[in-house]
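for the recovery benchmark. tokens below, seq after
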């Protein structure tokens, strides 16, 4: 096969360019296909700032036998339109749709796009079906992640770490350019937050790469691409349990032994039980290894709301975790939400109060609008109750209000989003003035 893998562009319709880091899915799929002897190209059309015309033109020039199109939920409609045009112009080319968007709504993806197949979830072990059998195919989660080939970073267009990639915030403060990419050290999340899509998480526990396999990849990124900043894009890297901590401790110690001058950031779960501080513990060694920041999902200052979205954390978890990270010299990027199920103005005020209380330990903040994805528990509830009316046209989710609920209207949600930002900025200024 001659396979062209494409990340769907969204910049023209959404109004912003999402060119932070390359998606890991296509990098792994490209690596497996190449290992099987196929000719492969990977194009991130979003980072290249291509649109339909450029993609169709490149297909005509390169003449692949198979095309794989990947998209997130905010690119779902664009991907469907792209595949329709692709099949109209090149009817003999096999087209497979995959990624989070199609995985959430595979029947709709298949029926509306005219694609030959749709792959749901992790695709590496079923690529013969994805590119050879018509219909919907459900991925098989690899148990041994070390058995997979290293992601095909060298096949990515544009070249990783180059100027076309913005990198995710926050960025390390270093002399010279930041050359960043994304990696995954584990796959899977055992939690069940109602805003998360279950369609792409067929297994409910994390599968872990070995420390040796991880360090091998880091050395390759450093030596071959000059990467000096890495976003560890696991669902949750810290706060996951003692077994997870022991594994991460081993990874960090091997990094300390074998990797020099590389900066790391990751995502974490607030936990008073599993984020420890014994003076020379995990957070201390993470800092020594180059972890300069962690992104922590706080979501709400109301324990009642967190129970409603099945977050499984409390305000005490949030305060404990943010303070410990701060005390160990790891900066925090706190993620909060507004407009959640059962969240009244009274509950939103609790979030405002907790943001003010934890501001001394927060270095950056992000307020997103609660936006259930197709396949998530609240998605159908929102449609059935009329909270979400024009969901097919919703592409700027998390930045604008999609839901109009009896306890909080769309206008109120956006006002509260601004109010929470203002509270953080005001409190931050007060702290600086006191110093």
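predicted aa per position
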């Amino acid at each position: 096969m001659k396979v062209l893998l494409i990340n769907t562009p969204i910049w023209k319709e959404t109004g912003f360019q999402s060119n932070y880091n390359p998606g890991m899915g296509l990098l792994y799929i490209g690596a497996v296909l190449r290992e099987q002897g196929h000719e492969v190209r990977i194009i991130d059309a979003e980072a290249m700032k291509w649109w339909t015309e450029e993609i169709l033109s490149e297909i005509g020039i390169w003449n692949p036998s198979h095309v794989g199109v990947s998209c997130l939920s905010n690119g779902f409609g664009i991907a469907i339109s792209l595949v329709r045009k692709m099949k109209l112009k090149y009817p003999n080319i096999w087209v497979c749709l995959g990624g989070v968007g199609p995985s959430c709504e595979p029947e709709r993806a298949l029926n509306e796009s005219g694609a030959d197949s749709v792959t749901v979830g992790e695709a590496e072990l079923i690529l013969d079906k994805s590119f050879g059998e018509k219909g919907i195919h459900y991925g098989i989660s690899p148990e041994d992640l070390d058995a997979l080939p290293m992601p095909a970073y060298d096949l990515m267009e544009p070249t990783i770490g180059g100027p076309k990639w913005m990198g995710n915030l926050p960025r390390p403060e270093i002399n010279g350019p930041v050359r960043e990419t994304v990696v995954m050290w584990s796959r899977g999340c055992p939690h069940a937050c109602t805003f998360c899509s279950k369609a792409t998480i067929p297994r409910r526990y994390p599968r872990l790469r070995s420390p040796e396999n991880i360090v091998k990849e880091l050395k390759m990124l450093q030596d071959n691409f000059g990467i000096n900043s890495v976003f560890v894009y696991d669902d949750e890297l810290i706060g996951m349990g003692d077994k997870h901590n022991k594994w991460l401790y081993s990874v960090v110690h091997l990094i300390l032994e074998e990797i020099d001058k590389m900066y790391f950031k990751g995502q974490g779960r607030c936990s008073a039980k599993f984020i420890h501080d014994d003076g020379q513990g995990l957070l201390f060694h993470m800092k020594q290894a180059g972890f300069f920041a962690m992104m922590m999902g706080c979501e709400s200052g109301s324990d009642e709301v967190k129970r409603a979205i099945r977050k499984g954390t409390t305000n005490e978890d949030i305060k404990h975790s943010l303070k410990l990270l701060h005390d160990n010299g790891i900066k925090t990027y706190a993620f909060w939400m507004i407009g959640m199920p059962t969240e009244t103005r009274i509950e939103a005020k609790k979030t405002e109060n907790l943001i003010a209380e934890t501001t001394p330990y927060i270095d950056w903040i992000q307020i997103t609008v609660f936006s259930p994805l197709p396949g998530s528990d609240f998605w159908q509830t929102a449609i059935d109750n009329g909270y979400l009316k024009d969901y097919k046209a919703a592409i700027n989710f998390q930045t604008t209000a999609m839901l109009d609920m009896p306890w909080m209207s769309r206008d109120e949600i956006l006002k509260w989003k601004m109010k929470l930002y203002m509270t953080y900025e005001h409190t931050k200024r007060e702290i600086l003035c006191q110093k």
